[in-house]
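User: Some background: our group keeps a shared notebook of sequences we're curious about, and every so often someone picks one and asks for a predicted structure to add to the entry. Today it's my turn. The entry only has the sequence so far, pasted here. Could you supply the structure so I can complete it?
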Amino acid sequence: MGLANDVGSFAATIVRLGRGLGSVVPAERRAPGRLLELWDFEACPYCRKVREVLSELDLDYVAHPVARGGSRRAALVARGGKMQAPYLADPNTGTAMYESDDIIGYLNSTYGGGARAGWRLPLPGFLDDLDSVLASAVRLGRGGRTHGQARDGVERLLLYNMEGSPYCRKVREVLCELDLEYVVRNVPQGSPKRADLVARGGKMQVPYLIDPNTGAEMYESDEIVTYLQTRYA
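Assistant: Of course. Here's the predicted structure to add to the notebook entry:
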């Protein structure tokens, strides 16, 4: 089962041509003062496109999972007017929006630093959508439905992440299925935040999870998944 899970996650990375693994922005660009917020769920192909761009732009954000059966769906409807993901809110500019392509355009124009993240092959944009749908199909809908319940008083977990990493994907799927909010600290290739991770954990490896509720910190996707399921399922 573990091997099949790894193979499936690697396949999704290959389908997406490694999107979300490397930074496209200058290292000296200043990060936003406040964390962006993203309402999404892991199995959503349109959410995937946005998460890839967030990683390529080296932007951190708060992840609010809204998988089917999740506790935040009604709150998202109250906030934005409909249950649709992805939904981005930027407290730095007061901007909030649906639609993955609109969000990607906004992120590039606001935080691209002259670079452009996202689909860069000279092909029609609909192929990006199709490719992302195929990546979801490869994962058999993992991260599409909540199996746990949100808990009051649980402080947000912190995940050092690269969107294109097959091991990070496994962890994000479980976080979504357990309906846990968390902060994503993206560390794509070229990110200056990689030095922070090495200083904290001792090596440059993702995923790396920090749980402020218990003080637990760990590498290794399978160990993280076991920990999350034991602690929060």
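Suggested note for the entry: The beta strands are 36-40, 61-65, 87-90, 95-98, 157-161, 182-186, 208-211, 216-218. Helices lie at 2-15, 45-56, 73-80, 100-111, 126-138, 166-177, 194-201, 221-232.
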